[in-house]
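User: Can you predict the 3D structure for this chain?
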Amino acid sequence: MTPDEYCQDKAARSGSSFYYAFLFLPPERRRAITALYAFCREVDDVVDETSEASVARMKLVWWREQLDALFQGEPPIHPVLKALLPHIQTYDLRYQELLAIIDGMEMDLDQARYQSWDDLKKYCWHVASVVGILSAKIFGQTQAQTTDYAVQLGLAFQMTNIIRDVGDDARRGRIYLPLDELDRFEVRPQEILNGQYSDRFVALMRHQSERAHQYYQQAAQSLPEVDRRAQRPGLLMAAIYHTLLLEIDRDQWDVLDKRISLTPIRKFWLAWKNWVTNGGSFLKSVRS
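Assistant: Here is the predicted structure, written as structure tokens:
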């Protein structure tokens, strides 16, 4: 299996909405974004699939060392880094940006609670917005303002993930909702950990959803028209994630004991519709 095939397999097996955006890209950009996604999956799996925190830290140290070696000109060992190497200079993929993703994954080893939105936003930037920044460059960014779009969209994506996964995260002892906002809505952390649904919980989640919608709107407003066509893959993902958030809203944030999702056929339909309209369907839905 070649490095590119390894990354393709990693992306396909993930079942992520991101995979649908890759399908429409030209071959070189598709290989680059697939390698970047596979890198993110590898370091994320270190935390998710390693039961001992000390072992996970050692593995993340190894990834940092491999990243250092890669940018110092040493031949990469891991197939993901081998696949990523040809695209680093082409798309200006920077060491500090890739390192920030690893730092974000390590944050999950250090804390399972966030006191405020500012604290949680920092985490979201590391695990999502930086990925958006790198992706925008691979897709063909030409305007500096497109970076702002990528940052806002990353925050919207991560908040959608957090809202969808409240129950799953709680079963792992994690709460990715700001604790000061739990206090404001009079929801005790133990209620979430125990899966207790209430009107107070609904109000708390409505507030989180409003925040996510706001970031989708800000992303749409930040995208320069000249870069809209190039950034279609991000707009495809935005259409899928935004539709998912709307479904969660309609279900009144019933996320404590089930995981709301879209079917693969619906994801593909949303992706295709937004590809042929240069993201018009998504942009219309958030700007109206």
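The domain at 111-288 is CATH 1.10.600.10 (Farnesyl Diphosphate Synthase). The chain has two domains: 1-110, 111-288.
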